[in-house]
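Notes on consecutive records. When two proteins share a document, each keeps its own sequence and its own token line. Never mix them. Below: protein one.
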Amino acid sequence: MAGGQAGQGTGDEECYRDDGLLDRLAAELPEGRAGLSRIWAVLPRARLVGGVVRDLIAGRVVSDLDLATPEAPDRVIAALAGAGIKVVPTGLAHGTVTAVIAGRPYEITTLRRDERTDGRHAVVAWTDDWREDAARRDFTINAMSCGCDGVVHDYFGGRADVRTGHVRFVGDAATRIHEDALRILRFFRFHARYGRGEPDGAAMAAIAALADGLARLSVERVWSELRRILAGPALMETLALMERSGVLARLLPEGTDRPALDRLLATGAPADAILRLGVLAPGDAGGLAARLRLSRAEAVALSSVRAAPVPDPAADDDARRRLLADEPAEILVRRSWVGQAARLGRPSADWDELRQDLTARPRPVFPLAGRDLLAAGIPPGPRVGQALAELRAWWMAGGCRARRQACLARLGEGAADRTAGPAPG
């Protein structure tokens, strides 16, 4: 049972047994619970840590099963390998190895303490002190651990904060942010998912004072967090908090159009980070993609969000085929949400039917290539490309229905026209 009542940041450990917690895990992830039993058989002092404990207490779906242990990484590797468990040294510099059991990964990290931090990276050393390891975590709700005996160790009042929807830093908020400025964005992401009501005042004050620290972070880390925020819940409320603290302007100095994003969300559009970014940040898509160092696929998708043409529910069968001939369905669907937001700003069965139809249709493919024109006798050179473009335009005008033989016949008609010369005067 509880070994003491956790105070608000006092560091008093609340230690209580919760057999139902591991029972819930076994019911939700039976194969995961079986894998944990194998790990605990050789590493009995290891504990589940972070998100899995938080989500089990919150009654949310569990995905990752991360553990921590006082054993050093080399001893962890030896123990797992000795038990016939596949082990991959995924992050030895940070004390992390990954056990793989029945295809499921289990990250196991040696307890750590920070030796030195600079706002971006930390130099760590191993420790066997569980509270010391918990103290270096970002938020109280992420600082809990649970052993194989079902005992939950809560050093900073995380359970109470989960239940009340209070997202707050472990200890002093400014200290945590000085250690890693990315925690600014993590705060907004976690508040969106687990917070209720007004955000923690100490956290918001520290964020507003230290928001300049975001400039020292790698763009890749910033985009990784921003993408999760954009795809997450309570987005409009979160963006308002980010604007209030001065963070949003630092991330998107080009400007934002939050009303347009609000209209997009009102349509029921999916939680697509690129779609939402394209509507929120209406400036130069190419410049934004370069600054955030988006992947090539992400950059293409962002540029396509606001491009033309925008699919219209009134488009007939041929028009829809022409759209698909020029753009993949995924791009057209994204663009349709933008059109629906601009024209309606609410759900619509007609727009839903359009997207379903575009997704279900096979994409029309022009049946000829340059080699077909060469085989038909058109000499190599610019004329091949010109004739191919003319032929494709004819194919598009007909609703992209003409098959290969019809296109070849049309090519032959064109060749006859070209060789006939002008009519006699």
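Protein two starts on the next line and is unrelated to protein one.
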Amino acid sequence: MKRSTGVIGVVVVLGVAYMGATWYVGKQAQVTVERVVAQANERVIKMLGADMGADNLRIEINDYQRGWFASDVSYTLFMKDEDGTPLELKLHDKLQHGPLPASAVAAGDFMPMLAHSQAQLRPTPATQKWFDSQNGKSPLNIETRVGFGGTGRSVWTFSPAELVEDGEKISFSGGVVEMNFTNDFNDNTAAGQVASFSVTNEQTGENLLIKNIQANSKTTMSNQSDVSTQSNATVQSLAIDSPAGRAVVLEELSMAVDSQQKGKLLDGTLRYDFGRIAIGEIDLGSVSVGASARQLDVDALTDLATTYDKIVAREGISADEELVLTDAEEAVMREKLVAMLASSPSISIDPLVWKNAHGESKTGLQVDLASPDNSQEQRTDVLLAEILKRVKLDLSISKPMLIQALGQVQNDPQQAQQMQVLGAMIYDQYVARLSGAGLIVAEGDTASTAILYENDKVDLNGQAMSVPEFLQRAMSAVM
């Protein structure tokens, strides 16, 4: 009797201790959730600016009902579509408290954790048709294991869906995104995949089909102001088909983004690769293009863009209208531009390469900028001379590649041959004229040029000259 009483006492003590631990962990889970949400909003504001971030993208905790073993949490993601129309996405989260959440234990996970989250999308006007396609079930389910010490793992599962909106049928295979968090949720890796996505206009028969989308990203933060991000995405094929025209097919697409932000300065590179581009029977070959920016003041650039958008909104200018600035508006824009140039940013295309079966052509451009000594200078040529610190252009054109591309424009073999002959004549004519002016160098079937502007001087294919002399040569060649 005494032994059984002792066992019962131990069980009671352990039960009370676990209940106390669960209550404490539940309280810490709430603190962590609120902090992570605030942190996410701060990063959006830092990236987009105070006005853009608060207005265009933010997340709020609408309700947090904390119980002893679990909590019910409601979130709303506020955003805007491409037309500026406000959209709301709502999530409901059933948050099981650690250290051994019942839902995680039931799933076979006995590792201690802060919380086990099982969230679902809730219907809003923006997502109602998506819900309807699932017969009222949530099309998005999010399972997150929140560990101790700022670690976690989240899996987002998107259900397959078919729906019709504004005369377009959308078919989605479903997909999965997996994310892992470390370093107090500041560092993360993510990987996602979607088998297919298509949009068909039921009236015109036009169709967009994307197959095998895969994406990966990695973000690390050394402190609150230094962030490094590497992302890449690949698509097996993208096809745009229409009964009235030839299909456009892009194969083996890839995109890569690499950025490092230290304080307010950003270094970044962006690259797109298209393994094959085809229009009907025309094979245009492959295209690769890269772009980069160095020493870019993100805050100043955001301020410049925001100021411009406010002026456009105030004037009620549409996209196809020319904006005419008042003297006061021009002064403000000039001030914002000078502030952005203070960091001496550099932008470049490095390079653009077009290949087909007969050769390749490529171009590269680098522009180093600087803040003008006299920002009130009214003459455009003087102001540009101070802003453009260094400009380097490299261009190479392959005659066989160009002729092959022009010949493919025509389906008829005879017309294709005529187009190739015409292309060869035009190429030879312009190469002769530009070579005579010293603007290009012709070697075999390749025409190239290398132009460097620096310190108010121009180096043209290895020959130094003044800016007026270069402009005179250029004008003589095109007249």
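For the record: The longest strand covers residues 245-262.
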